[in-house]
Write a structure and sequence with these properties.
The protein is mainly alpha-helical. Helix content is about 75%, strand content about 0%.
């Protein structure tokens, strides 16, 4: 675990678990189909049986996913981190909003093991704006869950 900033490790884990909980409550109708068929039907609904807004979001997430997954593989090789393809499988079959924060938490752990010193160079306005973005994201996820 990171020696100087264990909070970042735990923050990434919190984001991943919150994303997992607040996304998976919306897919109960797919769960009885099995892993592969559930994914096929989900993407049919997201891309084919969808309105323009959900299609936009699905395509946007797919392009973000490939960029992030390329970075994950490259970064994992750079810092000698194992199991990168496990995170990509999790992103594909469980959710990228869970897999990427999980990967980032484990990346923090690996960086600390490699260097023993992981420093953050955030400015105060970075922290304020990131907290605001996080609060809006969490509030939106909870609101969509309870509505």
């Amino acid at each position: 675990m990171t020696k100087n900033h264990p909070a970042l490790f735990y923050l990434y884990l919190f984001i991943g678990v919150a994303a997992l909980l607040l996304t998976w409550v919306h897919i109960t109708s797919y769960l009885g189909l099995g892993v592969v068929e559930a994914n096929v039907q989900f993407w049919k609904d997201a891309l084919i049986n969808a309105n323009p807004a959900s299609t936009f979001l699905a395509v946007d997430i797919l392009f973000l996913a490939i960029a992030v997954e390329i970075w994950m593989v490259v970064e994992s090789r750079r810092i000698n981190m194992k199991f990168v393809w496990l995170y990509i499988i999790i992103a594909t079959f469980v959710g990228i909003s869970f897999a990427v924060p999980l990967y980032l938490a484990m990346r923090e752990k690996q960086l600390a093991a490699n260097n023993g010193d992981v420093r953050l160079a955030l400015k105060s306005y970075d922290m304020i704006l990131l907290c605001l973005l996080g609060a809006v994201t969490l509030a939106t996820g909870v609101w969509l869950y309870v509505r």
